[in-house]
Every structure is written in structure tokens, then in C-alpha cells.
Amino acid sequence: MANVVANIARVPELKARILFSLLMLAVYRIGVFVTVPGVDRQVMADYMNTRGSGGLLGMFDLFSGGALQNISIFALGIMPYISASIILQLLTVVVPAVERLNKEGEAGRRKINQWTRYGTVVLSFIQGMALAVWLEGVNSQALGGAVATGGWGFRLLCVLALTTGTTFIMWLGEQITERGIGNGISLVIFAGIVAGLPRALSQTYELVKNGQIPIPILMVIAGLVVAVTGVIVYFESAQRRILVQYAKRVVGRQVIQGANSYLPLKVNSAGVIPPIFASSILMFPATLANFFPNASVLVAAVNSLSPGHLLYNAMYVALIVFFCYFYTAVTFNPVDVADNLKKGGGFVPGVRAGKKTAEYIDRVLSRITFGGAIYISAVCILPAFLTQNFNVPFYFGGTSLLIVVGVAMDTARQIESHLITRSYEGFGGERGPRMRGRRTDEIL
Question: Model pTM?
């Protein structure tokens, strides 16, 4: 660890990026405690502790980093931005005009990002209005109502504060991605989950102290958490390497000998995106139910789509599998990879170059993505097992572990990439980098 810190300190640009990221995350955590005007935070905290510690409210509070319990201006979190990203990526596949725009390079991506920002504002307005209507009905038996004076004045002020908060979080995430280290949006979610871990540990201690969780069960839970963390690290680093050979080439009067290389295909190419996208979609019925509290169909749907219910688990797994394949298809195009190999004189042994190579890569990628989807689904369903059978706080569930470990590994790889490009040793000391999942020749 001392070598890592010393190596980072020798690279001024990398050090500045890390400090900038930490500063932006600190600003985000400060904003979590800025309460929406007109709402009693103590009432909301009491309501969340007594009635909203689990279910959809618990998941929403998890992704917002505790902002919902504090009824902060950041209470909507980054979920509107994620929902807008889902919509734009679906349009990229469905609408030819958006697909062409996506293939125009940097200019097209900037245009799509701009549309995503506009969509984030629209969705923030809708979700903010739903949250404002819901807040007017929140009551605590000990402290009374959360909103002293309701009506359209409060609703508009609440929507303005929440929309501004979400827009600011989106800006923070983009600044971290551009000027810091790691993926900004993922780091915002990561920071929210990590910030809640001390409280979760305190709750677990109280449960053990009161005898609600026996010591043997606690040891089993601790071992399970460690085992799941190891599984996540293993699968996030796992890859299927396809051998690529290059034929001899004549450049002028010089003959360049052929060489062998590998095309690495990650088992989990989508990272932590599928569970985040799936959770965002499953929260949508709850948003609609706040607008129509008397609609029995929506109320029944929300009750059925609470974490732990059979329908919720089935839909959660189905959406995770779908987004694993969808996001992999969006980010990795076998046809383009096959064309680039053909232009560079590379070929897969036993497979004809061009269309056949693309089909072969697509077939291999589909098989390993299925394994990755099953792994993510199994990890993310873990909270239902822990909370129902062992009364474990929601923070120790598989979804939070997957996000924390996945984002930490991705950020570590990016830091290592900066170190390697400047001829330092990375995280492995004198023997070279030890982080797996990305080869040195890929980075260089």
C-alpha cells in the first residue's frame, strides 16, 4: 500500500484527479444533509426507521445514499439520470436516426448526452412531483405529519429543489468522469452505499446485542459476505481469451513476422449496470402509485414488487439478464471487431475472416454473457434471503456488495492504467501490476 501511495504521489496529474474526485464526492455527501424546504426531517427519519427500512423505500434510500431518510434535495439521487440513459440506449437500438447519430463519433455522443440531460430534468420533475404528493401523506405516530403546510406551493417548491438537486448530482458525476478518476455516476452511488455502512454495522450490533441475531448466525453471515465478495472479484476479473494470429506482412523491403495475440472477452461485460437499470425500472410503479393513491391496481402492483416477493425476484432476474445482453450488445460490436482484425491481418485459427469471425465472436460472447447474467442475478437476489431469514440490514445485500466491489475494482484499474502509462509499477510493486481483467497491451 505504501508503494501504491508513493507511486500515485509521483504522478501530479493522477494525484490531482484523485483529489478532485474526492472533493466532488465530499460535496455530494454534504448535500445529502440539506433538507427540502417545508419538510420536517425528524418526522421523515422516524418514518423510515419504523416503516421504510426495507422494501422499495429501503432500496431507494440505498441508491440515494441516505438522502431519502434525510429528505434532502438529493433525495431522488441519480436514478432519473439512469432512467433517461436507459431510454436513450433503447432508442439507439430501435430508432435508426438515433443509431446513426450514435455512430457519428464524438459529436453524435455529445448530442445524445445532451438529450439524456434533458430527459433527466423531465423525469426529475415527474418523480419529484410524485415524491411531493407522497410526502404530504407521511405521518409519524410520535411526531405527526412530515409536511406542515401542503398544497401546490409546497409541491412546486419541492419539485424545484429535487430537480435542482438531481441536476447538480448529474453535473458532479460528469465532472468526476471528465476531470477525475473513475466513472462519476458509479462513484456517486458507491459513495452513498459506503457512507451507509457504519450505520448498518451499528444496526447489526444492536440486533446482536438484543439477541435478535445469535452469534453463530452472525458468523455465518460474515462468512457469506466474505464469500460473496470473493465471488464478485473472481467473476469481475474473469475473461474468455480468443486466440488471434497475424500473418506475415511485407512493409517496403522489410518482412514483419506474424505474431499471436488474444482477444479478451469479459464474463461480465456490463459491470454493475444491469442491477442498477433493473432497480430503476422496478421503482417506476411506485412513482405512479403516488399520483394515484386510490388506484387499487397500482397499489397491488407496488405491494407485489417489493423486494423479497416472488414476483419482484422473478422480474428482477429477468431484467438483469435482459440488460446484461442489451448493454453488452450496445458496448461491444462483434462485426466491427471482426472487420478490424481482418484489416490488421489478424484471424482466429480455424475460422474464416470476416462474417464467420463475427459470428464466432458473437456466439462465444453470448455464452459467457449468460454465465455472467446468472452470476449477477444470484448475487443480487441474496438480499431477499438475508433479510427474510436472518433480519440483516439491507446494506449487506448482494446488490450493494456488487456495486461497491465492482466500482472499486474499475476505479483501481483506471488508477493502475495511469501508473502503467507513466512507467510505474502499478499495484504490484516491483513484479508488475497484479490487477486482472485488462491486459497491459490493451492499456498502452
Answer: 0.76
